[in-house]
Amino acid sequence: MTSGFVFDIRRYSIHDGPGIRTAVFLKGCPLACAWCHNPESQSFRPELLLRSGRCIACSACIEACQPDAIDNRQGVERKLCTNCGKCAEVCPAEARELVGHQMSVKQVMAEIESDFVFYEQSGGGVTFSGGEPLAQPDFLLELLSACRARGLHTAVDTSGRAPWPAFEKIRPFVDLFLYDLKLMDEDDHIRWTGVPNKDILSNLWHLSESGHTMRVRIPIIPGINDDDDNLRATGAYLASLPCVPSVDLLAYHNIARSKYTGLGREYSLVDLRPPDRAAVARCAAILSGFGIDVSG
Length: 296
What we know:
Helix content: 25-40%
Strand content: 15-25%
Strand order of the largest sheet: 5-1-2-6-7-8-9-10-11
């Protein structure tokens, strides 16, 4: 049985598909979006996350750290840290957390099965997100197959950055794709996410052509993808698909800044403010002008 890396399992989720859902977040992503609100999802290996505000100065972490990577109770020398998690294990205040754990399909399904009653009452199910769940294709396929065997509604939240054969393998076991679409211009896409968008657009076309149920999710990032040119190009492309999908607009927020600090990373959009309702409504109006059903 295949195993993979999971960094979170969130119960009672109501924003990741229909009904009440269990959201399983797989670790690792081929994109590095500047605005990513789950930066702990990007790396394919476990990472130490610090929450210095919780530290009670007990020194347990210093005593547990064999590489001597803790320079003080609220810090860590990242070059020395092996991400072994020993400091997190002994921290009574949970000021340190090792993000990302290897889990078997059986272990994940045990977590999912404990929420069956919520699925039945709400028409919910399971959503696999990330990171990029298709970056662990074998693990994802076994999880989806196990969910299908139990009659569970399944959704996959994807960036679209994966080989098409990976989509082909999982497609029979997926009831709904939540498909992210960020920027239409390839140079802009590379600048802000680190990768080109050719495969992303191609996979979206193939899913549409197959008639698969999906919703396209577009984050609204002020000054990055909310300009008229990008929105019109996005609307024209979506309207040209064989089956025009519905669109959810997701307003940018900056509540993840503390995560970047906790991971020892710099947040490049520190001065960026979230869009107001009027700004999101303007984006929705432009997309709606292409005959697209837009919410957000």
